[in-house]
Amino acid sequence: MDITNLPACLVSYFAAWNATDPAAMHRHVANAFGKDTRYLDPHRSATGVEEFVDCLIAFRVSTPDATISWASGVDSHHHLHRYAWRLRYGTQDVTGYDVVEVDADQRIVAVLSFFGPLPSIH
């Protein structure tokens, strides 16, 4: 994927997930997040840079070989971006998607992350 056309905040956000050094995680998150950014996924929640970096460190400790990559392009409108991602670690291959809200300066103010495909209707 050509990341030169992606919002810079999302590039930094993915770099933070893939970083292995806490200082690099912090730098990438600080580049991506606005003030008091909220992060929610099925397993964790955080508000602000420090709490989110703590989540990343815990994630990296539990899955040191994990990589997160783009699984789709980015669909955007108004102040929202959505995209699919792929998480690989060990023999696991997990997909999901995020809906990201940004402020007027294109800094992330909220990440709502979902794991797996959408449920079927029945």
Task: Give the secondary structure arrangement, pairings included.
Elements: H1 8-18, H2 22-32, E1 33-40, E2 45-47, H3 48-62, E3 67-70, E4 75-77, E5 80-89, E6 92-102, E7 108-115
Parallel strand pairs: 1-7
Antiparallel strand pairs: 1-2, 3-5, 4-5, 5-6, 6-7
Structure, briefly:
With about 120 residues, the chain is an alpha+beta fold. The protein has three helices and seven strands, in the order H-H-E-E-H-E-E-E-E-E.
What is the terminal separation in angstroms? 35 Å
Elements, N to C (H/E): HHEEHEEEEE
Characterize the main sheet: 7 strands, mixed
Number of strand elements: 7
**Reported CATH architecture:** Roll
Helix segment count?
A: 3
How many domains comprise the coordinates? 1
- Outline, from the CA principal axes? globular
Radius of gyration (Å):
14 Å
Reported by name, the CATH topology is Nuclear Transport Factor 2, Chain: A
User: Ranges with pLDDT <50 over ≥5 residues?
Assistant: none
Q: Can you tag this structure with a few keywords?
A:
Nuclear Transport Factor 2, Chain: A, alpha+beta, 39% strand, 122 residues, single chain
Structure description:
- 30% of the residues lie in helices and 39% in strands.
- It is α+β, with helices and mostly antiparallel strands and 122 residues long.
- β5 and β6 form a beta hairpin.
- α2 (22-32) crosses α3.
- It is globular.
- The termini are far apart.
